[in-house]
Give the backbone structure.
Amino acid sequence: MRSAIYHHPHDIRIEDVETPEPGSGEVQLRVAHNGVCGSDLHEYFASETFVPVAPHPQTGIQAPVALGHEFSGTVTAMGAGVTSVREGDRVAVRPTYTCGTCPSCRAGHPNTCRILAFHGLSGPGGGLSEYTVLPETMVFALPEDVSLELGALVEPMAVSYHAVELSGIRPGELAVVAGLGPIGVGLFFALRSAGITDIIASDPSAQRRAILSRLGASTVIDPTVTEVATAAHEASDGLGARVVFDAAGVGAAILTGIGALAPQGKVVVVGIHEQPMELNPTALLLGEAQIVASLVYTDDDYRHVIDAMSRGGITGEGWVDHAPLDDLLTVYDELRRGERMKVLIDL
């Protein structure tokens, strides 16, 4: 089978590799679509962050690795003992491996496992392959009214859903979404699903602002023209935003977000930051503001996202397009330049 294999930054190769077979408790999938994630771009253009250069403490995997952690597919074979799915089922994949024994896992927060691993980054196989094998516990059957295209979006949408749940925001409170890439789009969907209607969507990109407007966002701003704090205070009778979501992954989103907060408001960091930033904690002290981080998702987040898709609350229309596996590196370049929004690689 064909698979995208990551060797080093700036070195990804489409290779012919052996088709994996499922063992006990595992399922084999024929992959349909795999989304290109911002973390994939970081690994390729910057440095190894989630791809291990030494054996991973949980999986034993190190580069070179098969890429792809946002994907959907169809069950084509099953190992002994599999009961939750059957051959022919269409599924979305939760790509995280957790250890079950570290302090985070024992405390009931496996999404922050101290040795968290990802299928498609630090696990045995990935979704940028024609076939892959995973534990049964990592696949979620899709209802008939949820397409395989939407199934490949469950992973990034679950990232966003988890962040909204963690924020504690309630209907009637103002939210700011800073950064309108795929995670920002997911935050918009998740906020609407939670009954939040007062949302400011902020991004310097005219293309991304236009997409959010078409998806139904009523207040969309360019932060280089309109200050986020000004927009938040004008939209809330001077109170400010209860939560600012940093989906941009740049320090400016956090720093401007602090100024936009209501008293005791929160900045929720969702984006991956490639660069450090300077912060004077006094900026938090004066308003009893908080900065919290949100990491990946739980099984319940996956179930909620799939249910929202089934109810029509999440759509790929107007912001998702497709490309073949052979165009992978071209897609990376286009995404890096901001020329495309969300691309699913068709396998």
